[in-house]
Write a sequence for this structure.
């Protein structure tokens, strides 16, 4: 590993930093999104049952005991259950936007690394080729494959490193984005379900 870093030249330093950062952000986001998973069907049934029995505080406690964005948005709706429907909807939208921000936090880092890593690899390719030409110019075309190998190695290693970092990071980015989209869809579904339940209950 150290041999590759040395042969890759100075561009390998930001590439190494990018790989460590991408790994750290991916692990942190995966843990956060994984922990936010909850059976929303059971959660919604428990909340409805408590509300039907007039136990609003119990319904609030059930929502707050659960983790994740769906539980947070349900708790927000229950907290304003006696307000007009439009006011409840507006509050749910505000809480939903905040939960979306929390889920998407640091995702821009992964998106940036996907773009930057190949560009850094390309930069390393250019500097490696320049190094090879400098060797040729200095030695006036001397036939020394070893002298040229350092520049060629720098060009190839940095290109490969940039792609090796960017491709898995892109896959992780899209996977994490799919988890976020799933949570957003579930938030919209359950908030609409809660609004409808509160409205019909009020009419009843």
């Amino acid at each position: 590993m150290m041999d590759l870093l040395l042969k890759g030249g100075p561009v390998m330093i930001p590439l190494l930093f990018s790989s460590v950062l991408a790994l750290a952000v991916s692990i942190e986001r995966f843990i956060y999104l994984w922990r936010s998973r909850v059976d929303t069907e059971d959660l919604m049934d428990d909340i409805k049952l408590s509300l039907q029995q007039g136990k609003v505080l119990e319904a609030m406690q059930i929502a707050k005991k659960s983790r994740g964005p769906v539980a947070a948005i349900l708790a927000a709706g229950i907290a304003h259950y006696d307000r007009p429907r439009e006011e409840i909807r507006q509050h749910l939208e505000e809480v939903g936007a905040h939960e979306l921000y929390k889920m998407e936090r640091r995702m821009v880092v992964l998106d940036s690394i996907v773009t930057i890593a190949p560009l850094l690899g390309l930069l390393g390719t250019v500097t490696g080729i320049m190094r090879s030409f400098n060797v040729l110019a200095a030695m006036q075309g001397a036939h020394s494959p070893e002298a040229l190998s350092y520049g060629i190695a720098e060009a190839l290693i940095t290109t490969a490193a940039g792609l090796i970092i960017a491709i898995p990071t892109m896959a992780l980015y899209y996977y994490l984005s799919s988890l976020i989209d799933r949570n957003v869809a579930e938030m919209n579904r359950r908030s609409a379900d809660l609004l409808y339940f509160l409205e019909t209950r009020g009419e009843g």
In short: Helices lie at 2-8, 12-35, 40-52, 56-65, 69-79, 85-104, 107-139, 145-203. The two ends are 70 Å apart (CA to CA). The chain has a mean pLDDT of 85.
